[in-house]
Design goal:
Blueprint lengths: L13 H20 L4 H25 L3 H15 L2 H13 L5 H14 L9 E7 L2 E6 L1 H27 L3 H22 L2 H4 L12 H14 L5 H33 L7 H31 L5 H14 L3 H15 L5 E6 L6 E5 L9 E2 L4 H9 L3 E2 H8 L5 H11 L3 E7 L2 E8 L10 H99 L1 H4 L1 H32 L6 E3 L1 H11 L1 H4 L4 E6 L7 E3 L1 H18 L5 E10 L6 E8 L29 H11 L3 E7 L3 E9 L5
Parallel strand pairs: 10-12
Antiparallel strand pairs: 1-2, 3-4, 3-8, 4-5, 6-7, 7-8, 9-11, 12-13, 13-15, 14-15
Length: 739
């Protein structure tokens, strides 16, 4: 049987040819570059079976020999009868269904049952001529096979629809959506090839299976459903380019055929060479336009990646703190790619642990993750963004499978992007699913990879700046400590020098006082002896002298007391110079102050001076030397009198007990309304030979000796002065001295 040449339909060849191209392309990229999973391998086999069916349709429209065509038809169905078990197994593996192996085995048994029938008239009885070429005539077994194919198709589409409804993973939902649209509709169209076989004069609809197959190819290309994005992009670019050039060349040849052959000219070789040369020159411009078109069609996100990168690069370069870098990263990524979850894990330079920074404030996961977590080694080895499915595939069947699954669930990871510096992982950008429900496209991965690289540099720079700041602070602290140590050393040196000067001055004073005291003792002893003799003689004659004699006796007694007092003072000076004086007697402070005022009475009795005494009741006695303390009070009161202006003033003497109920210290305060002491001179008032009085009015030893006496008593002297308003000198003495 031969087909009428007028019934050979070249246009009818185009749809199945496109189907062959698309399905073979899908099968090739799945087998060569897709993940080695059972579902992917079965998908590739299904695509090849679809390509075989399209080959059958194409040959029916081209082959003129009916006997040869029926033989080809029967051999094609040798493979096609196994499409039922392959289709069922593919859907089961894709959805993870493991409890229906009996159905798969039953489908394989049916396939092997139909296998011998394909070479008999029970399957294909023969061929008859149709509008577009040969059409097969179905036998009884073919009708049975068609019914089973329809049931299989309905079963598989129902499973895919249920899987789409149940899954919460955007990636899985999109994959099932495109598989349902591509494989399901392709299978439906191929199944509808039964219409012309059973006698309806229509074009075999299986030839249009390239349309849903192209939809599936679009999903694979745009969302990298087979995880072979880079290779697929190159393949689709060059395949499209070759196809376009072939179409242009074929169109050119057809045009040449119309213009030259029909006109009777046979010299078309030169024109054909010119056409081929034009194709060579058009290759590069067409390639660039095809690349741009496909990038926009398949791989473009809904943002301006270049603008975002320029903005982010400029801002990252200006930041010097790690927290600012982290905040900018989280806000920029969330703004460009709205996702349900966004986390940043950054390695701590000290502990090595990865610190977690979560954009979601309700995050209840860990604050830190140990660096030995298997996800970190996986990302460091990959060096590129890794999807949830890739993490799951790498962990499948390993001891870390559950650990990785828990980590992905805790952080809601749909995509993990490593931040690498010198091939070392310093951080991870963990993104959840997009809020829009669509998958991450190639441009998303490129953008996030570039951001991660820039972020790694920015984080290291910020850590370096913070380390420099820490070192600067540490250096400043050390300098302050060294400066303080140096200051203390200098102060100690100055104190030592002052103590040395004081010791030398004290030694000089001691020598001076010793000599002076020795010289004064003789006249004082002579005067005391003379006064005592006179007093005794006057007492014997007191009966004759009357009242005058009593007054003289009283004056002589007081003179004798003062001479003895002068002798005691001279002895105390001598003892002070020898540093051997001991203080053991209980001293009434009020009596010592009153005695000092009485000694100085002749100095102020004619002056407009008011002296107020504010004595505390029950003031405890102090352990010390009455004469020495009296000398101290005389010196202080005399200085106060000298400081009062000519128009007079006031001196207030206040005593009090300090230290609570026990009263372990007595304070004696002398406050005058004199001219005061300048602040710059207060530090020198206890130095020997220092005086603020006019030349000839003071020796500069009064306060020095007083300070030494009080120090030996275990007390202290405090001086507060305000220039122009007066001075307050406070003497603090312990009631009991330490042994």
């Amino acid at each position: 049987m031969l087909l009428d040449p007028q019934q050979i339909s070249y246009p009818a060849f185009i749809p199945p040819a496109l189907g062959i191209f698309v399905l073979v392309f899908l099968s090739a990229i799945t087998l060569l570059k897709g993940r080695r999973t059972p579902a992917n391998r079965l998908f590739a086999v299904l695509c090849l079976m679809g390509a075989l069916n399209n080959t059958d349709i194409a040959l029916l429209s081209l082959v003129a020999d009916g006997d040869r065509m029926i033989a080809i038809e029967r051999w094609i169905y040798v493979a096609f009868v196994f499409s039922l078990p392959v289709y069922i197994q593919f859907v089961h593996r894709l959805l993870g269904i493991t409890g229906r192996r009996w159905l798969e085995r039953f489908a394989w048994i049916l396939g092997f049952g139909f296998l011998p029938l394909t070479q008999t008239d029970l399957f294909i009885r023969g061929l008859h001529q149709g509008v577009h070429g040969f059409i097969a005539e179905a036998g009884f077994a073919f009708h049975v096979f068609s019914i089973l194919a329809g049931c299989t198709l309905a079963y598989c589409i129902a499973l895919l629809a249920r899987g789409m409804k149940r899954t919460t993973d955007n990636r899985e939902r999109n994959r099932l959506k495109y598989v349902t649209a591509g494989v399901g509709l392709s299978s439906l169209l191929i199944a509808l090839n039964i219409l012309p076989v059973i006698g309806l004069n229509v074009f075999p609809l299986g030839g249009f299976s390239f349309v849903p197959a192209a939809i599936l190819a679009y999903g694979i290309l745009r969302y990298d459903l087979l995880d072979a994005g880079a290779v697929i992009r190159k393949g689709i670019v060059y395949s499209t380019l070759v196809l376009l050039l072939v179409v242009l060349y074929a169109a050119g040849l057809s045009l040449i055929h119309m213009l030259f052959v029909r006109s009777g000219s046979r010299d078309i070789v030169g024109t054909s060479l010119l056409l081929a040369l034009m194709m060579v020159f058009l290759f590069q411009p067409i390639r660039e336009r095809v690349q741009t078109f496909l990038d926009r069609l398949f791989f473009r996100g809904k943002y301006d990646a270049r603008k975002l990168l320029r903005k982010l690069s400029g801002e990252l370069a200006s930041l010097r703190r790690s927290d600012e870098v982290r905040d900018l990263l989280l806000s920029s990524i969330a703004e460009a790619i709205p996702v349900e979850r966004l986390s940043l894990l950054v390695r701590n330079a000290g502990s090595g642990n990865f610190r977690v920074y979560e954009r979601n404030r309700d995050f209840a996961g860990p604050d830190e993750v140990l660096p030995d977590h298997p996800l970190f080694s996986l990302l460091e080895a990959a060096g590129e963004p890794v999807s949830r499915s890739q993490i799951k595939e790498n962990a499948l069947g390993t001891q870390t499978e559950q650990l990785l699954a828990d980590f992905v669930a805790t952080f809601g990871i749909d995509l993990a992007v490593p931040m690498l510096s010198r091939n070392r992982l310093i951080g991870v950008i963990a993104l959840g699913q997009k809020r829009s429900g669509v998958l991450f496209v190639h441009e998303d991965l490129e953008l996030l990879g570039t951001i991660a690289n820039q972020a790694a540099i920015a984080i290291e720079n910020a850590a370096g700046y913070e380390e420099i700041e820490r070192m600067n602070r540490d250096l400043e602290r050390r300098i302050e400590e060294r400066t303080a140590d140096l200051r203390r050393t200098l102060e100690e040196k100055e104190q030592t020098q002052q103590q040395l000067i004081r010791s030398e001055s004290l030694a000089a004073i001691g020598q001076l006082v010793a000599g002076t005291a020795h010289e004064l003792n003789n006249p004082l002893a002579s005067a005391s002896s003379l006064v005592e003799s006179s007093l005794e003689e006057l007492q014997e004659r007191s009966g004759d002298a009357g009242e005058t004699s009593d007054e003289v006796l009283e004056d002589l007694r007081f003179s004798l007391k003062e001479l003895k007092r002068a002798g005691s003072i001279v002895r105390s000076l001598l003892d002070l110079s020898r540093q051997t004086q001991t203080y053991t007697e209980p001293v009434d402070i009020h009596a010592a102050v009153d005695d000092a005022l009485r000694i100085l009475y002749n100095s102020y009795k004619l002056l407009p001076v008011h002296i107020e005494r504010r004595y505390a009741a029950d003031l405890p006695r102090v352990e010390g030397n009455f004469a020495n303390l009296g000398q101290v009070f005389v010196n202080i009161v005399k200085n106060a009198l000298d400081a009062l202006p000519g128009e007079g003033g006031a001196i207030t003497i206040t005593t009090a007990t300090e230290g609570g109920r026990e009263g372990n210290r007595v304070s004696v305060s002398f406050r005058d309304t004199g001219q005061g002491i300048p602040d710059g001179r207060l530090v020198d008032i206890f130095k020997p030979f220092f005086t603020t009085k006019e030349v000839g009015r003071g020796t500069g030893l009064g306060l020095y000796i007083s300070h030494e006496i009080i120090t030996r008593h275990g007390g202290e002297i405090l001086v507060r002065s305000e220039e122009g308003r007066g001075t307050e000198v406070t003497v603090l003495l312990p009631t009991r001295r330490n042994a």
